Amino acid sequence: MALFLMGADVCIARERAGHDRDSAIPQMRAAMDDLFQADCHFYGILTTSFLVETLMERGLDGDVAEAEVAIERLAAVRADEGLVIRDIWLLRLRALLARAHGDDARYRDFRDRYRETARTLAFEGHIAWAQAMPGRRQA
After folding, report:
1. pLDDT exceeds cutoff 50 at 138
2. 124 and 98: one domain?
3. 115 to each of 61, 89, 91, 126, how far by Cα in Å?
4. Of the candidates 37, 34, 42, the residue with the CA atom closest to the CA atom of residue 9
5. Whether pLDDT at 137 is above 70
6. 59 and 85 fall within a common domain
7. Which is more confident, 96 or 14?
8. Which domain covers residue 63, as residue numbers?
């Protein structure tokens, strides 16, 4: 039951982020911490992606650094668990991070790998998101 409630909190926070990022981000942080402590990696992956994207959208001082820490925490989840969904999210998030840092070469590399992985796995949502990623860093 607690897992269901954490998942619901994450969805509510993501919806709230559309109009009030400042109050949604602490809720996402707390949910991410709780999910990783409970070894609920699937929901932790989604929560991390929501948090990282919301931080990038907000763009305050420190948001990119916090996003980078969250990405590395996600990357540290044991790979022997067959978390292909984690791997595809990491490609997307690392592309967004490279773009935020202004590293066009790394951005293109991660974006292209993300696109190819999405196609290979036939993940339709990720295919659409990957195709929507711009070819160059936006100023």
Report:
1. no
2. yes
3. 30, 11, 9, 8
4. 34
5. no
6. no
7. 96
8. 1-77
Contact yes or no for 57/19 (Cβ under 8 A): no
Both tokens assigned to 10: 């994450």
Find tokens 């951005």 and name the residue.
107
Burial 82-114 (b: 16+ CB within 10 A, else e): ebebbbbbbbbbbbbbbbbeeeeeebbebbebb
Q: What's residue 62's pLDDT?
A: 97
Supply 97's token pair.
């991070």
| Total domains in the fold of the chain | 2
Q: Are residues 56 and 105 in the same domain?
A: no
Residue pair 93/74 in contact by the 8 Å Cβ criterion: yes
Question: Does residue 70 sit in the same domain as residue 5?
Answer: yes
79 close to 70: Cβ distance less than 8 angstroms: no
Residue 72 has pLDDT above 60, yes or no: yes
4 and 69 share a domain?
Answer: yes
